[in-house]
Fold this protein.
Amino acid sequence: MSVAAKTQLSHEQIKPKIGQRILNSKEELLSGELAGELRELLEQRGILLFPQINFTTEEQVAFTETLGTFAPEGGDGRDVTKITLDVKENPSSAEYLKGSLYWHIDGTRNDVPILASLLTCKVPSPKGTGNTGFCNTYAAYDDLSDADKARYEDLHVMHAPWASLFYYEPEPSLAKLKMMQSIGEKELPLVWTHKSGRKSLVLGCTSRNVIGVDPKESAEIIVGLREWATSEQFSYSHEWSVGDLIIWDNTGTMHRAEWYDPDCGRMMLRTKLEGEEAWA
């Protein structure tokens, strides 16, 4: 009796401290056989790139479901979300997505942030614009000095989506400020101790202030750690081609879209995995 050979995960490193390129076929990925190994690799490497895998929307949803609990988008339970700054294509959230041009973690106001996002490129922006940047906040924490680890270990930061408004609109109207403030805010640890025992930094443009710290020192901590975590050794900027898919671990990375013309047609489709671990 013949025994079917087990599908082997095929991959290669993108950079020493972040990213792995997955080389398996669409059929192998959709089978679900590799889901456990992909989950482990994602936690280790921060992001997984599937170059020009060319999933249809239905296949992207199906692949997402092999990896964990699918997280429908928004109150209407849509399977996928268009990610674009083009108000014609995305009239309800193009304005809010301007904050995505700055380093952030998704779900900082939620008790349990999403585990991961999957982004497929349908229409790239012109070459030289519209990359997506990622940085590994596990690796950034690991490489801190012992003195810095001790300094930051017990600090907490107030995260507020309205704080990100000032990155792209320094003088907003009071009405817009109040609208953004109505989204809510949450106090989070600066250092997240995960159930695995690993630790990562919780940073990004929603970071308003370090609790109980002088405003000047607070700003220096937030900006200094962001600069450290997004430095070349911990970060990767992906230039999109049609059909590329990237998964990133939202609990151990930050990400941002890099500038592009909102009218250029750039279009991504996103699916997400429900969170499995509360902030700690």
The chain has one domain: 11-273. The two ends are 51 Å apart (CA to CA). The chain is about 25% helix and 25% strand. The mean pLDDT is 94.
